[in-house]
Amino acid sequence: MKIHNYLLLVIAVFTPALSADTIVLKSGKKYEGRILSQDDTSYLVEVFVTKSIKDERRIPKDHVQEIITQAEDDKEFETIKNLVPTPDRIDADNCEARIKSARDFIAKYPKSKHVKAANTIIGTLEKEYQVISKGGLKLGGQLITSADLEANTYDIHARMLLIDIKHLSARGSYQQALRAWETLQNDYSKSAAYVSSNAIAGRILRAHIAELKKWIKTLDAREATRKSALESLEAGDRERTIALLAEKQQAYNALIEKEEKELRTRWLTIDPYHKKALDYNLRNSESALNSLGAKSSTQTELAGPAFRGAWSALAKGDLEEAAKLIHKLESMHLPAKYTEPLAKQLEEKQATQAAEAQAAKERAEQERLEKIKAEMEAAEKAAKEAGTKKKGRGKRK
């Protein structure tokens, strides 16, 4: 296991748990926290205001009724119990690091009441590791073996992209979400994921349109504010800031030119001060939203079944069926990265099958010739024996 992956896991997943001692006041109020220090009259306590926010408070000792100290193994198990469920697309190193952490907990606290639960966690993680380490995948909370991934790779890649779109949308990254949807539309238009993406795409487009209209509407006011801020600067600072803004604008112009001409994307990177890009994105977003209503899922023939069928036919050696399905996939204009491996496998199996047929034909011909030869030799031997007997009878006369 790579050390840096383990360290990242420790930082990202195994940060100190939100568990602590409980400080119970005489008023009945409770604080979950950690006593940092104390003097004769008070405690300095680090308390959890929320799951992610801490604060320090000084609590007079005469206000405290009791302090309930949490056992060390209870505290550490707070991190262990969060090892599962694992996230989608977890890699083998991350999974292995989680297993190690759970085993380390058991080794440290072999008599803890949490050992049974820790072993259950290890069992779950080991099951996932067995699949993932062999090229499998976790997606949508489900484990997919490497064989299933190979047989369904087109649909699974489309599903992964749709999940990314949903995550980007939830974060408010509408432009990135629409870029991903554009890829789903261009490369996976024959997938179930794309067919089901219209609803989420509609929500993203409407949110992005509202965002763009707000930026366009406030553009003049924001530019005036920026101009006023620049004028308030000292001459030297103003010149440096103007030069920096010009440099930034030049780099941005080069970026969107590349996106528009080379990437041919309908959604350019947004600069709230660049009206051309705002208008461009708005036009394309409104056009895409209008076109969603004209689409019908019943008109789309899905490629997933044909892809699985071709893979299965190749595995079983039914090359005629495989050839028919691969031709169908190619006519559906799937990206070459999905059809070419199937076509190459078909070509290799056809070559192997042809070579085996030729070898069988040659063996059959050789066997036929050997049979003829054997029959001729047997006939010659019989004739020779018959001649010898006839000659022997002639001598006796």
Q: What do these coordinates show?
A:
The chain is flat, with a radius of gyration of 37 Å. A five-stranded antiparallel sheet has the order 4-3-2-1-5, with no helix packed on it. A two-stranded antiparallel sheet has the order 6-7. By secondary structure, the protein is α+β, with helices and mostly antiparallel strands. The protein is built from 15 helices and seven strands. Helix 9 (198-217) packs antiparallel against helix 12 (275-292). A hairpin with a 5-residue loop joins strand 3 and strand 4.
What radius of gyration results from the CA coordinates? 37 Å
**What's the quaternary structure here?**
single chain
Calculate the mean pLDDT score and round it: 88
Unreliable stretches covering 5 or more consecutive residues:
1-19
Shape: flat
Q: For the largest sheet, list the strands in their spatial order.
A: 4-3-2-1-5
What structural class is derived from the secondary structure elements?
alpha+beta
Strand segment tally: 7
Helix residue percentage: 55-70%
CA(first)-CA(last) distance: 100 Å
Order of helices and strands: HEEEEEHHHEEHHHHHHHHHHH
* Largest sheet features: 5 strands, antiparallel
Beta fraction of the residues? 5-15%
State the helix count: 15
What key phrases describe this protein's structure?
alpha+beta, 5-stranded antiparallel beta sheet, two-stranded antiparallel ribbon, 15 helices, disordered N terminus
In brief, what are we looking at here?
With 397 residues, the protein is α+β, with helices and mostly antiparallel strands. Helix content is 66%, strand content 10%.
